[in-house]
């Protein structure tokens, strides 16, 4: 079972919420309070990536008629409670008289601490909260809203936050968000909107009693009655997917209990990649890690990571792994529970042929990454496998535009890296929204490969679970790194230092 919740269309979300609230205004008000508070908390965390929200920061709240505006107003009120010196301006796009009753209630709570305005602060704002339209928006944008958004988009703003969905969706004049905070349910337009920015899923407990199943979820229960939930192929992974790693380990266990990962990779041209994979694997919880690398690298690598077992491999003339070294691996494979192939491998024909031989003969699950992601390699043999491509590599191995049919065809669990990560086993697509631009640097994929390989070694019978846990753990470590050190002046290996903190903090 993967800890995940359904991603719904706007129509499905509307029908689900109508059933959930059943016309109970106090229940809706409680959810609005929860949503607004969750948005404020998430904004404060995300502001840490750019130095934190200033004590006397300027906030602009864009409010429409409905509950989405109420969520934004409550978020602003929570920001005011946290930052009493903050200056808050509210723009009622359709006028204050147009507000629905719950949004009026939210405005009454904020009004003593804010100013209703019709213009803009020329110097810009630290934060803009877009609460004009939620998921019930139907295009096109009206001319008045489009004109307002055009002006807002041109303002200097440090963080642009869309509540639930950016107003206007993909309209030319739509709100351009840095973050979109999906409240309660992730709506499917967020997966394709170029102006949504980074997506944060704020779980309000709608699916707290759900059990995840392939292709859908059982219905949540409220007031002892079943509420129909549409079957969903697309699912958002919850941070609770890491809970098995947060639990106490059995007292009667040893290093063999937690798996043995073999890593085959490295070349003189790309020596650092395999080292980063090994370092990440050592932090994954795997009991043993053995690395097969070019002979000339062993001494330096063993000094850097003595916990791993290092096996020197014969080298090609260009410093890659030679075919003649295959028996070194074959004679030891009965000790492994998983195999990682590819980090730093290089593109020499002999090394490519070697990778194909290894995958074709492996008796244990394999994780395939980097230069080993080639059509003839990923389809070699019949052993179960996890693939870790970025978009270019996915196209190279014949993935096309869609992950689901590719996984159905190949039988591989695929982790498709991008602005957000998609994981599929050919039945469902799981989305991890953790991580961000701090990962846009060399070596971050090698870290994910080592982490995922170590998790597969511990649960070789559950490749999908290991892949989802790896993506979330890696992404949350990236978020923690960026919040402490920013997005720019960091290096990839620092991710390792944040792996423990993610498991210690279930709120990551």
List keywords for this structure.
508 residues, alpha/beta, Rossmann fold, UDP-N-acetylmuramoyl-L-alanine:D-glutamate ligase, twelve-stranded mixed sheet, seven-stranded parallel sheet, 16 helices, 19% strand
3D shape: elongated
- Count the domains: 2
Q: What distance lies between the first and last C-alpha atoms, to the nearest angstrom? A: 21 Å
Instruction: Work out the number of β strands.
Output: 23
For this structure, the quaternary state is single chain
Uncertain parts: 210-224
The whole-angstrom Rg is 25 Å
CATH architecture annotation of the largest domain: 3-Layer(aba) Sandwich
Side-by-side strand order of the widest sheet: 8-1-14-23-22-21-20-19-18-15-16-17
Largest sheet: 12 strands, mixed
Question: What percentage of amino acids are in beta strands?
Answer: 15-25%
Structure description:
There is one protein chain. The strands form 4 sheets. Strands 8-1-14-23-22-21-20-19-18-15-16-17 form a 12-stranded mixed β-sheet, with helices on both faces. A 7-stranded parallel β-sheet has the order 4-3-2-5-6-7-9, covered by helices on one side. The protein is built from 16 helices and 23 strands. Mean pLDDT is 94; it is low at 210-224. Helix 2 (25-47) packs across helix 3, helix 7 packs across helix 14 (444-458) and helix 14 (444-458) crosses helix 15 (463-485). The chain has helices at residues 10-21, 25-47, 67-82, 101-110, 143-154, 243-246, 271-282, 298-304, 326-330, 349-361, 375-378, 391-396, 403-410, 444-458, 463-485, 499-504, and strands spanning 4-8, 58-63, 87-92, 115-116, 125-131, 157-163, 179-183, 186-187, 198-202, 212-213, 216-217, 221-222, 225-226, 234-237, 260-264, 288-294, 309-313, 338-341, 366-368, 385-387, 413-416, 421-424, 429-432. It folds into 2 domains: 4-232, Rossmann fold (3-Layer(aba) Sandwich), CATH 3.40.50.10260; 255-504, UDP-N-acetylmuramoyl-L-alanine:D-glutamate ligase. Strand 16, helix 8 (298-304) and strand 17 (309-313) form a beta-alpha-beta unit. The protein is an alpha/beta fold.
């Amino acid at each position: 079972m993967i800890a995940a919740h359904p991603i719904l269309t706007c129509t499905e979300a509307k029908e689900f919420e109508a059933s959930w609230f059943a016309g109970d205004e106090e229940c809706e008000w409680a959810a609005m309070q929860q949503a607004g508070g969750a948005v404020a908390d998430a904004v404060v965390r995300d502001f840490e990536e750019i130095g934190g929200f200033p004590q006397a920061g300027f906030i602009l709240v864009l409010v429409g008629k409905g509950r989405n505006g109420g969520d934004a107003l409550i978020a602003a009120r929570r920001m005011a409670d946290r930052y009493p010196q903050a200056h808050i301006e509210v723009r009622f796009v359709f006028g204050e008289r147009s507000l629905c009753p719950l949004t009026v209630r939210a405005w009454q709570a904020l009004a003593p601490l804010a100013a209703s305005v019709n213009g803009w602060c020329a110097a810009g704002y630290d934060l803009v909260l877009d609460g004009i339209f939620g998921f019930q928006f139907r295009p096109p944008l009206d001319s008045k809203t489009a004109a307002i958004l055009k002006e807002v988009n041109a303002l200097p703003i440090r963080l642009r936050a869309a509540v639930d969905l950016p107003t206007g969706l993909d309209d030319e004049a739509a709100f351009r968000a840095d973050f979109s905070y999906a409240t309660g349910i992730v709506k499917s337009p967020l997966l394709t909107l170029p102006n949504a920015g980074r997506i944060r899923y704020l779980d309000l407990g709608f699916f707290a009693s759900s059990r995840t199943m392939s292709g859908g979820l059982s219905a949540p229960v409220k007031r002892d009655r079943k509420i129909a939930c549409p079957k969903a192929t697309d699912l958002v992974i919850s941070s609770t997917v890491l809970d098995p790693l947060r639990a106490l380990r059995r007292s009667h266990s040893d290093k063999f209990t937690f798996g043995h990962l073999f890593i085959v990779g490295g070349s003189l041209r790309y020596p650092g990649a395999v080292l980063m994979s090994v370092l990440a694997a050592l932090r994954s919880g795997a009991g043993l890690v053995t690395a097969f690398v070019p002979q000339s690298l062993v001494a330096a690598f063993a000094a850097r990571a003595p916990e791993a077992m290092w096996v020197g491999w014969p080298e090609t003339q260009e410093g890659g792994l030679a075919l003649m070294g295959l028996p070194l691996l074959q004679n030891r494979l009965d000790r492994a529970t998983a195999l990682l192939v590819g980090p730093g491998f290089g593109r020499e024909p002999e090394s490519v042929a070697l990778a194909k031989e290894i995958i074709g003969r492996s008796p244990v699950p394999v994780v395939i990454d980097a230069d080993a992601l080639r059509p003839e390699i990923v389809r070699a043999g019949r052993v179960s496998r996890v693939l870790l491509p970025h978009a270019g590599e996915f196209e190279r191995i014949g993935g096309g535009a869609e992950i689901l049919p590719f996984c159905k065809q190949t039988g591989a669990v695929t982790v498709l890296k991008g602005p957000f990560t998609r994981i599929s086993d050919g039945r469902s697509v799981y989305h991890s929204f953790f991580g961000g631009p701090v990962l846009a640097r060399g070596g971050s994929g090698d870290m994910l490969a080592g982490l995922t390989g170590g998790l597969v070694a511990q649960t070789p019978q559950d490749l999908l679970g290991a892949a989802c846990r790896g993506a979330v753990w890696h992404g949350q470590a990236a978020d923690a790194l960026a919040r402490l050190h920013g997005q720019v002046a960091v290096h990839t290996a620092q991710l390792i230092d944040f792996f423990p903190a993610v498991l210690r903090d279930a709120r990551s």
